[in-house]
Structures are given as structure tokens and as C-alpha cells.
Amino acid sequence: MGLLSIIYGLGLQCRRSLVKPQKLPVKVISVGNITLGGTGKTPAVIAIAEEAKKRGLSPCILTRGYRGKAKGPCLIQGPGRNRLVPRSRVKGQETTSTPDPSLFGDEPALMAERLKDVPIIKCADRYEGGMFAISNFKFQISNLIFILDDGFQHWRLHRDIDILLIDATGPFGNEKLFPEGRLREPLVSMKRAGIIVITKSDMAGGDQVEALVRKVRQYNREAPVFRASHKPSFLVNASGETVAADMVKNRNVYVFAGIANPNSFRDGLTSLGFGISAVKSFRDHYKYKQKDIDKIITEAAGSDLVTTEKDMVKLKGLRLPGNLFALRIEFRIEDAFYDILFRDI
Fold first, then answer.
1. What is the overall mean pLDDT for the chain?
2. Average pLDDT of 118-127?
3. Which CATH number goes with the domain that contains 115?
4. Which candidate, 58, 109, 143, 172, places its Cα nearest to that of 316?
5. Is residue 12 in a domain?
6. 92-128: string of b/e by CB count within 10 Å (b at 16+)?
7. Domain match, 134 and 26 both
8. Which helix (H) or strand (E) holds 49?
């Protein structure tokens, strides 16, 4: 291990040793990973919130809102119902008509569009965000459940169960800590997980998945391990209308995305039968400008354009062509996962 990774690891240990977790008065489910991006957290959080609603619970998502400019706890409720608390320091942005990624972050904006009746609280301090929700909104505490987005390393908040997501197609990189590798924490941290989910397991070979499960069991012998898939389902246009994938299937499409794992996105399109004429990658959380879209349109030369839902929320407000679509990805897992997750509620 190199010097920078050693320094990073020591800082990680020091920070965790100094943190005393605070406990909210309702159950907290954390969804996270130990690598830098690309495990499919957002579709998983959306699916868990949807299943909680089906089971008569009132889910509320707590998120950091990475790169969102809004300060302090703020509420996102979906198009037309977003607001920031008055102490937000984002001048001129006290209210918004649609979820603004520049205020709330890419993933919270996407979750707000997908989960129009599920409150989403953006706050760097997730305990403060949870107490803000309890104090300001009329929740029935007996049915309330908090879902902590990207929470595996957020030690300041006590959680009742930690769900650890591991990408079957590229689980740990070179197994080195950042900045030499993709690991946020050493592999031994897997022992903290209460449930482990191998995501995108359908995109990896059976032997590869079994080898990964054996690797996981070296560090955690007790947590149930589930296999999940992130299934491409249908297309969504810039207006939010769903379009059958067959509309552009077997036609060449120009693909662009600013996500951590663009190869996974490309493979999902290929599995649906799309022909890909070109792929353009931007850095994760890239903020698009009109000139980017204009250049993409020119390069596509009339081909249909396909991007991710996470990218599409950042394109609102730009002049977009009518043949631009986002591919919706759905998290699918066996019911036993949810039975274990919600059994004590």
C-alpha cells in the first residue's frame, strides 16, 4: 500500500474513533457500499422506498445530496412541491418548480422525480435531517422509517441495519484504498453489514458471483447474502413520458452518460438489443451545458440519443431534441430480502 493510501486509511480510522453515533427515535435502514460509485445505490433506495410504501410504512430518505448547493436541512417532495427551509443560503432559490440537481444533488433530484410521495431530506448531518423531518412534518411515528442513502460511512447516525451493495461486475477494483484504488474502506469493513447484496449479478458469470460470495464470507459469515439485478425496463423522454424500448430497439443509438460506471450502462443497452453507434463519457456528476448537447447532436448525425435518468435530470432547462431518451433501470431482488428488512417493523 502506498503512502497516500496509508494516510487515507489512518484518517478514516481516526475519524471513526472520534464519532459517537446519534440515534433517531425510529428505525433507520442504511444503503451503501465500500467502493467509489457504480454499485446501483439509487435504484436500490428507490426500490426499498417503494416496497416500504406497499407494506403500509411511511419511508423518508435521508441524503447528503452530494454537490448540492443548498445548505442546512431541506425537503424535496417531487415536481411542484419542493422547498428549502428558510435558512437555506442559496440566494434566489427558496422555492423551485422541479427538483434542481444543482441545489439538491443528482441522485436526490432523480429520487424526487421517481418517488413523488416520498419525502427526501437533504442534509450533511443525517441525524439533524431526521430530527428536522420529525419536527416539521406530520409523520405517524409508528409507521415512519428512515432510509439512509449512501450511509455505510456515515458513522454519526446510528442505523438499525446496514445494507452493503457490492457490484458483481467489478466488486473491489485492485483492492486498494483510495487514492490508489476504489476502496472507501478496507475489505474487513464488510463485517459491519447486516445484509449484503451482490448487485448486477445477472451481468456476471455464475462462477464469478460464487467466487465473490466466497470472498465476502471471508469477512462476514453471518449476514444474509442476496443476488440482485439492475434491469433496464423502458425509455423515458425529456417530458417524463414512458416509451417502449421497442421504439428504438434494433436501431443505432448514440449513448452518452456522466456516471461512475458507463460500461454497465452500455452493457444494459446492448442486452436489450440496441445497436450503439458511439459512446461518449463524461465525468461522474458532470454539469451539462447547452454546448455539450449541441455537440452531441452534431456527432450523433441523426441517431437517437440515449442517456441515464441521472443525466436526464441535469438536462432540464436546456434545449433538447425530441429523439433524446433516458433508460430506466429497476432494482430487482427476491421478496425474502424485503421480508428480512421489514420484519421487525
1. 88
2. 93
3. 3.40.50.300
4. 109
5. no
6. eeeebebbbbbbbbbbbbbbbbbbeebbbbbbbbbbb
7. yes
8. helix 41-54
Query: Tens of pLDDT along 149-169?
Result: 999 999 999 999 999 999 999
| Domain harbouring 309, CATH code | 3.40.50
Containing H/E element for 340?
Answer: helix 335-342
Residues 101, 181 within the same domain: yes
Q: Where residue 116 falls among pLDDT bands split at 50, 70, 90?
A: confident
Task: Report the distance separating Cα 174 and Cα 160, nearest Å.
Answer: 31
- CA 266, CA 271: separation in Å to the nearest integer? 9
Q: Helix, strand, coil shares of the chain as percentages rounded to 5?
A: 35, 25, 40
Is the residue at 41 inside a domain? yes
CA distance 214 to 123: 37
Question: Do 160 and 297 have their domain in common?
Answer: no
User: What average pLDDT score do residues 19-27 get?
Assistant: 93
* pTM for this model (two decimals): 0.90
- Specify the DSSP element, H or E, that contains 102: helix 101-104
Task: Dihedral sign for Cα 87, 93, 98, 103, please.
Answer: negative
Segment among 58-62, 144-148, 257-261, 318-322 with least mean pLDDT: 257-261
Domain assignment of residue 199, given as a range: 19-228+332-342
More confident residue, 66 or 24: 24
For β-strands 324-332 and 229-237, DSSP reports them as antiparallel
174 and 294, same domain (yes or no):
no
Show contacts of 246-253: CB within 8 Å, 24+ apart: 248/274, 248/304, 248/306, 248/325, 249/273, 249/274, 250/274, 250/275, 251/275, 251/303, 251/304, 252/276, 252/277, 252/303, 252/304, 253/277, 253/303, 253/304, 253/305, 253/306
pLDDT in tens, 264-309: 888 888 877 888 999 999 998 899 999 999 999 999 998 999 999 9
